[in-house]
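Database export, one record per block. Field names are fixed; values are copied verbatim from the stored entry.
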Amino acid sequence: MKQEPVYIAPQTKGRSSDQKRRPLGHGAEIRASHIRIALLQARGRALAVLVMLASFIGPLQAASSPHIPGTLANPGFDGKTIKSVYFFAGQWRFPGPPFYEGPVPGELLAPASNDCLYTVFPVDGSNHLGWSETEQKRNFAVNLMLAAGVNVVNMSYWGPRSTDRWAFWAPMQTATGAHDELFDVAVGKPVLIAPYIENGPKTFGENQTGCQGDTGPIGQSPGYDFLDEFPGTLDDPAPQLVEQIVDLVHRYLIKPRKPGWPAKWARMYDRNGEARFVVSLLHVGSNQPGVSDEKFAKAFTWVADRVHAKTGVRVGFTLDALPPEHNAKFKPTPMRTGHFLAQQSAVLAIQPFIPEVFTGRCKAGEECDAVSGSSKLEALIAWKYKFVRDWVSTGIPVIADVSPGYDARSVFPGSPRYGNNQRWREGQAALLSLGVRGITANAWNGYTEALAIVPSCARSPLGEGPPGLVPCDLHPPEDAVNDAYRWFSALRLPGIDH
């Protein structure tokens, strides 16, 4: 019987921050007083250098490590900064043959269609929507990411194989089978994958009618919400979160179906210069009672330690820290929570996901998506600039999220509308000068919310799409549909050779 490949977690030794002093040599001509003065001056200069470096490489505790926290740690990517895209792997939700298993092994689910909820459509719909139809189409999608300078794919994850939340709430058919296809196509390509854990309501007994009059499956899964789940307790930290991470670890590291999968999971250096497997968390805050800043921060270490106890694998987290305007009971803040988060080796980076949507700014009619821009849009740009700058000031690595804009009128009628114009793209690019550690695009294929980096056009000529995009049925010129993709492709961190 063929032996199943087993992933062995690497064992690494911690690095001491204590440095032994070398004895000073003594020259006959140098007087002892001059030596003391020189030492004091050198110590002052060294302290100044360390303080300056801390603003670039995180807390001073990491200064003894040759590895920069928040950079990649995989072979072939070592020390590189992240340029990533948020990706919903899988077919679009349109009537057709089923592709992916649900809670019942061997039973394929056909979700209800949602194409009438798309605000924008990919120009090359055949390739971008038909992910599971052919390997050629999967290669097309990932190769286009690579051409934009992407080295990490943030993989939207909706729960273990035994759940069906993806069939109800994901904008694409983002099932575990589609995840496997993503790992498959990444093998042999210079790209890594970091799972991003999504929230979703329960589906028990739920049923949906699709855009085409089709009917989806009967739901069979519990819900998951980070805000309700986290932090838990030291003895039982966020059990559903732990369960999902363990599921991912077993599937892609410990018992992978393909031997090339483990090398594709992105690893990042933590504050001590040690490599951890990246797990990204969406909407990070808490609705549990009695949550303090210190307890909240320490709970990320609790979760990572629990995963390690169960699997032998060290994970770390990037956090989509919610802004103060969100209605969660507890939101982490740079000034209040940042100090405690910076002490946790399990906290790898702050990686927001369009936090500006929670501010209440840029409502429909405020012209934040006007081609020429507006004063309301300027205020939103300034808000996001301060939000990112404040997190950078904590010393925790920050991966700046950039988006082409937002317009979810088809699926969330009361949601804000902003961007998809040149002024917003300029404001997003300005974030990269704040000392951030990487870039992430939200999102690669967010068609329902007009977040697509993929070359796209507006839904129709009847005002059902962002003013900055030409309607699909008017056969737009190449420049009009490629604006977001070309803009993102050109983004680079200052002073870093990608």
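Remark 1: The radius of gyration is 24 Å.
Remark 2: Residues 25 and 35 are 10 Å apart (CA to CA).
End of record.
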